[in-house]
Amino acid sequence: MTIARLPPLNALRAFVVSARQQSFGAAAAELHVSAAAIGQQVRLLEDHLGGPLFLRRRGRLELTALGLTVLPGLTEAFSSMVTALSDLGTTSPALRISVPPSFAMKWLMPRLDALHEAVPGLELIIEASASLASFSEGRLDCAIRYGNGTYPGLAAHYLMSEALVPLCSPEFAQDHALLDRGPQALADPVPLLHETGPEQDATGPDWEKWLQSHGLRASETARVGIRLQQSSLVLEAAAAGKGIALGKLRLAEADLASGRLIMPFGEPWPLAKAYYFVTPDHPAHLPPITQLLKWLRVETAAVPSWTYAA
């Protein structure tokens, strides 16, 4: 046996903790993953070693002869690793978080300096994905999801609501007399930016519904517009003067504060979905997760400094 041929570290760790806890469920709670993920890792190790490590008896795990043989050495090895890393002061590993791409780009990135100042030493590995984060493989510690807050088997902490509002660049507003005429300006052919794709929130209006609610009808020119696959692309196109968007208000906060975008008219249209901080069901008394959630709650509760353009 050489280092190159060792079984995966996650499989070894799942076995050692399961043996100590005598339960896949208890091991899953300690390691912040699902019981299915623990079972999968143990089976991987059993395949590698060529035999079963546990017997299942009346809801408890009992070690087989093979399990009894390998457990003492592995337990000692993990104890040595913990001691070595503790001596180096490396007690907080990088926190792995999954975030929707537009939220990562437009809301989280502008605040990373503030996060590092509020939580010194916190190291984040950010996975930007439009797909729902899966905790079953043990790769993730936490996630931010945009949805209804119902995630079976997970703990969801409400962060903030979202709303749609017309957004454009100051130059675009001036060129199309949006500040002077208000929503009536959209009775003329004005380029509209449409969001499509996995980040679109169907609980809110599209442009046709928004215009109808203001007594307007989209012209054929306006109805075509530009269609973009992500919320962040819609906001960037609006800031570049390519049209007026029905953009997500919380994602636009940094651009509104800097003046890249303005809200020329219209009240925000509240959406049914919201942003949630999500962890495995037995989280996270892990200090880094607790610190990150505390910071997120402070940031999401802050009152934006921008105001309406008119």
Describe this structure in words.
The protein is of the alpha/beta class. The protein is 41% helix and 20% strand. The chain is built from 13 helices and ten strands. It has helices at 9-21, 24-31, 35-49, 65-87, 101-108, 112-118, 170-175, 178-181, 207-213, 220-224, 231-239, 253-258, 287-301, and strands at 54-57, 60-63, 95-99, 124-128, 142-147, 154-167, 192-195, 226-228, 244-248, 269-280. Strands 4-3-5-10-6-9-7-8 form an eight-stranded mixed sheet. It has a two-stranded antiparallel sheet with strand order 1-2. Strand 1 (54-57) and strand 2 (60-63) form a beta hairpin. Helix 1 packs across helix 3 (35-49), helix 1 crosses helix 4 and helix 2 crosses helix 3. The longest helix has 23 residues, at 65-87. The model is unreliable at 305-310 (pLDDT under 50).
